[in-house]
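Handoff note, outgoing to incoming analyst
You'll be picking up this chain. Sequence as last confirmed:
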Amino acid sequence: MTIIFDGLAAGMLLFLISVGLSVTLGLMNFVNLAHGAFAMLGGYTCALLLSRLGVPFLLAAPAAAATAALAGIILERTLYRRLYAATHLDQVLFSIGLIFMSISTAHYFFGATQQAFVLPDFLKGQINLPGLDVGIYRLFLIVVGLILAVGLQWMVSHTRFGAELRAAVDNPRAARGLGINVDRVFTLAFALGSGLAGLGGALGIEMLGLDPGFPVKYIVYFLIVVAVGGSGNIKGSLLASLMLGLFDVAGKYYLPQVGAFVIYAVMVVMLIVRPQGLFGRAAAK
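Most recent structure output, in case you need it:
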């Protein structure tokens, strides 16, 4: 039961960070491999606010999300917007360049060591239940992840912004003809994806650690979630994250000698069985 709970917590943290990539890659059709750089920015912002300014954690985490969202707006308007119509190869090469620039920047300002981080007192400790020790921090991640999943699914499916975003991606020219400000919609969507990455990076420092190599270390995990869950599907990303978290934690516990082999094996099997992902568009048809 403890392994299952830890796996759910790890999966939910993976969802918190990768769901932003599901927005930019799945909904906007932009291959943003620099997604992990925004998560790293959120992590460093949160760590600095906590350690140097004494900002409470519940304020530092949203501030980290806002910082990443602001960075996303600036980069979207100055750089990303120029590549919306480019090939995926151009987008990949561009975002890889941003990854290495972010790594160098973080290394210059913070050094190569892990960033020190201490959880606030209210997230420390455990709740002892019969047959299960529930970590308060992991329970917090699960609750926050579920709230965000419900909110994002509702936003995409039941709000005007979600409808405008889908229309802007499917046919920008027709969307403009209907009076939709496509540029504004893309900017807000990119800010949302970047902000979610920053929030996940802030909440995940304790479990994932934080150093300049963060964007490269975990980008494969984020891409796996989007691929297995189905491009642009919030429910699919959530289910894929939870499933991969469970298999990853269980594999490292029972088969530590194989490392992360289990999660990649699960990915291969899932994509063979369902190439479009768990809730991909082809399955919906």
